[in-house]
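Q: How would the structure tokens look for this protein?
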Amino acid sequence: MGNRNSGENAENRNPNGTFAPGNPGKRKGTRNRATQAVEKMLQGQVEELTQSAISKALEGDTTALRLCLERVAPARKDAPVNFDLPPIKSAEDASEAAQAVIQAVSEGDVTPLEGATVMGLVEQYRRILEATELERRIAALESAR
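A: Here is the predicted structure in token form.
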């Protein structure tokens, strides 16, 4: 096996090292060799290993306990945000909704990160409303001809 950076195995690749069109590389879903080896080693022993981890957790092994709890109740990566947001039916309404988000953040009802996420949703919705309005106006102009 040659040096990866020498370029000697660069056929069918772009100059930047990415695969050229028509050369897809690995198929989607292909797992790493190490992952496949570990799965093969564990085959048929999953139940025993799981029971062992549970037993150790019940005996007070904090690492095993944490492992078990992470599988039973994984940490939430996202949570609903509850605050009053006015309905958005126009770009002007989006401005009022943005003001409500800023107010909720300033009052501590939502975190700044949650507020930024909601603000992004408001902005995307405003763009959709704007595009819809433009399409409606264009259609009205074309039908008036």
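The CA atoms of residues 39 and 117 lie 38 Å apart.

The chain has a mean pLDDT of 85.

Upvote if useful.
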